[in-house]
């Protein structure tokens, strides 16, 4: 089933063999509620705890691709969620810092055995709008929720020469932006297409 999913992603235009290899290696059914287990290798988003979603595999592959990752890159992810995207990044030999605002999800990830396979992933419970100033700056920043605007503090935590991939818009629909910062600190934005994510919300949620 995993091979079929990879084949489908190839047909949809994903060419990066390292990303496809990571998707083939990761048991996506471990990330889903038992009720959706049989559909885990469909190219769809599914509900997870706290009213959130696990991203569609195509979206995970697309966003990962846009980051143009190099080995040992220091990467910040906003919206750990199910940690599926985090594990795809973890497979690629980068150093990942990932933030989740929902306590319930953060605590669930802590009990998730598969994550122990990735010592290169560090998880944080916090507000992604703040980033992680004491761990930055980062080579790459990936936002996996729909941001109302490009978070200014995250832009400050992006290294010169760095790339941020961020869906910007309201929670109905967003434009996927690739934001690059050149060696002089000049920012360029490119629109890469439409996307649909749960919203990026301010502050931490304490329930769960
Ligand atoms: N990368 C995840 C996608 C989960 S959906 C995966 O692969 O499953 C997006 C996640 O972003 C949700 O879990 C949501 O709680 C989280 N989120 C929303 N706003 C946030 C913020 N300000 N800081 C951190 N996480 C946030």
Report on the structure:
The protein has a single domain, classed as Vaccinia Virus protein VP39 (Rossmann fold, 3-Layer(aba) Sandwich), CATH 3.40.50. A seven-stranded mixed beta sheet has the order 5-4-3-6-7-8-9. The chain has a two-stranded antiparallel sheet with strand order 1-2. The protein is globular, with a radius of gyration of 16 Å. It contains six helices and nine strands, in the order H-H-E-E-H-E-H-E-H-E-E-H-E-E-E. The mean pLDDT is 96. The protein is an alpha/beta fold and 208 residues long. The chain is 24% helix and 26% strand. It binds S-adenosyl-L-homocysteine.
CATH homologous superfamily annotation: Vaccinia Virus protein VP39
Fraction of residues in helix:
10-25%
| Unreliable spans | none
Q: Domain count, please report it.
A: 1
Topology, number of strands = 9
* Major beta-sheet overview: 7 strands, mixed
Q: What average pLDDT do the residues reach?
A: 96
Strand content: 25-35%
Alpha-beta content class: alpha/beta
Could you give the order of strands across the largest sheet? Answer: 5-4-3-6-7-8-9
CATH class descriptor? Alpha Beta
The rounded Rg comes to 16 Å
Per CATH, the architecture is 3-Layer(aba) Sandwich
SSE sequence, one letter per element? HHEEHEHEHEEHEEE
Described by the principal axes of the CA atoms, the overall outline is: globular
Q: N-to-C terminal Cα separation, in Å?
A: 33 Å
Number of continuous helical runs: 6
Ligands bound to this protein structure: S-adenosyl-L-homocysteine
């Amino acid at each position: 089933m995993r091979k079929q999913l990879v084949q489908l992603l190839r047909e949809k235009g994903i060419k990066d063999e390292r990303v496809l290899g990571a998707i083939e290696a990761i048991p996506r059914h471990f990330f889903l509620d038992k009720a959706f287990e049989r559909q885990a290798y469909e190219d769809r988003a599914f509900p997870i705890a706290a009213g959130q979603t696990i991203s569609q595999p195509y979206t995970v592959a697309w966003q990962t691709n846009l980051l143009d990752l190099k080995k040992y890159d220091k990467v910040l992810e906003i919206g750990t969620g199910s940690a599926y995207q985090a594990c795809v990044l973890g497979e690629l030999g980068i150093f990942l810092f990932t933030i989740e605002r929902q306590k319930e999800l953060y605590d669930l990830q802590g009990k998730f055995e598969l994550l122990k396979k990735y010592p290169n992933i560090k998880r944080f419970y916090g507000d992604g709008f703040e980033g992680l100033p004491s761990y930055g700056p980062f080579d790459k920043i990936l936002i996996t929720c729909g941001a109302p605007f490009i978070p200014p503090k995250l832009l400050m935590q992006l290294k010169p020469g760095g790339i941020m991939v961020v869906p910007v818009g309201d929670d109905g629909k967003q434009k996927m932006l690739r934001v690059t910062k050149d060696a002089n600190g000049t920012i360029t934005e490119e629109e890469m297409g439409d996307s649909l994510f749960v919203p990026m919300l301010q502050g931490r949620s304490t329930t769960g």
